[in-house]
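Q: What structure does this chain adopt?
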Amino acid sequence: MARRPAETLEFTVEDLSPVVELMDALEPAGGWLTLQPAFDAESAPPPRRGMGFFTARGPYIPVATWVPGERTRQGVAYTALGLQHGVGGPIVRWMAERGHPLVEGGEVIEDHPGRGLVVAVPPASDHRLALEWLIDAADLVCAIQLTGEWLVTAYRR
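A:
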């Protein structure tokens, strides 16, 4: 079975409705989203020195994911909210200390400095709240100032 080509869409934090519509369409059909923020290239940090693949740090510019239909080992369905980041350590407590606790109903699946954060939310969770939480988390962990513009890539199964 051939995979459909990915669909990309630019959006701003002021208007999340196009992304929420994508989420509504993807959940029953199968697929996932990858979200990447825009940033001012002049404020980007210098490239990391040394052998980056030996470090336990993710990217300076965060990458967020939304994946419905994941399952635990016990077969329980959940939606996964993912965040790769460059903070350099577990971030759940770090974010909570900065006023950004876990999304309502969220449970940590993984919180690793290199692989990132994965939070499980119930499948019936509000898509807009999950999206807002991901965007706010990405803004918090980002090493530079974000512009408020984002790119979402939708992958359909």
